[in-house]
Design goal:
alpha+beta; globular
Length: 272
């Protein structure tokens, strides 16, 4: 069988038929490519950021805040000192958990490891020094927000909480942390003690990087989830990533519009 015949058979397997001429995934991939001829147009936001002090100040405090909501100050993270090689080798997805609740200390450590503040740049002429996170971010824009459904966490009500990474605190929403029916997989979230969700605020990266920003935001969500998984393993906890869920249901639960802000990925965590 020739290479072209093999490719044709694979296309039928992938698309279940001939590829549509306006396939959305293909169109987006093409539209988000960088090319020398269009570079000035695609990345004009970079020049705008350099000229606009108000944008520079906004970038330096990239977090969504709800000042009217009750806040829970989190304890400082306490990550176990285990060799990285051992943590990488031992990490496995855990889909069933014990009934032991998570402590607030354990949850605080996971959230900090995933996307917390790990350092600070020196102050500049316009804005205070930007606080740097545990995950890499294109341009230091940090377009993600973390939400927690604490199903069994000591000291937390079973309501949706938002993680303020800059203050290392939780904001408690009024909505109950009920995640039944959010996924085509009825076993999720199952017996997890908590579910951590990463939602994108797309415009934080889009204004600077144009269509390329969507790629960067997805990559960042992957970095955050890997941080959380490794921190869970280092803390002798189990975790599994949630990638299949009903987007609109989950966005409504978190009061996200599903366009400018939307959930990308999550993780179930708990004691093994």
């Amino acid at each position: 069988m020739s290479r072209h015949e093999t490719a044709a058979r694979l296309a039928t397997t992938v698309y279940d038929s001939a590829p549509e001429p306006d396939d959305p995934a293909e169109e987006y991939h093409e539209a988000s490519k960088l090319r020398p001829a269009t570079l000035a147009r695609d990345l004009r936001g970079i020049a705008r950021l350099e000229r606009d002090p108000s944008l520079q100040r906004a970038v330096a405090r990239s977090v969504r805040r709800h000042r009217s909501l009750p806040r829970v100050e989190l304890p400082q993270p306490r990550l176990a000192r285990r060799p990285l090689a051992g943590v990488l080798a031992a990490r496995r997805s855990t889909r069933s958990f014990s009934e032991t609740p998570l402590s607030l200390q354990q949850l605080a450590t996971l959230l900090w490891a995933a996307y917390g503040v790990a350092g600070r740049q020196p102050p500049g002429p316009v804005a205070d020094g930007q606080r740097l996170r545990t995950a890499p971010s294109a341009g230091g824009l940090y377009p993600l927000e973390l939400y927690v459904a604490p199903l069994r966490v000591e000291g937390l009500e079973p309501r949706i909480h938002h993680y303020d990474a800059l203050d290392h605190a939780l904001e408690r929403h009024s909505v109950a942390a009920t995640l039944d029916g959010i996924s085509p997989d009825p076993s999720l979230p199952g017996s997890a003690a908590a579910v951590v969700l990463a939602a994108a605020t797309f415009w934080r990266a889009r204004f600077k990087y144009g269509l390329r920003a969507y790629r960067f935001t997805l990559l960042e969500a992957g970095h955050v989830m890997q941080n959380l998984l490794l921190a869970a393993e280092a803390s002798d906890l189990g975790a599994v990533v949630i990638g299949g869920f009903f987007d609109d249901r989950l966005d409504r639960l978190l009061y996200l519009d599903g366009v400018n802000e939307s959930v990308l990925v999550g993780a179930c965590v708990g004691s093994r």
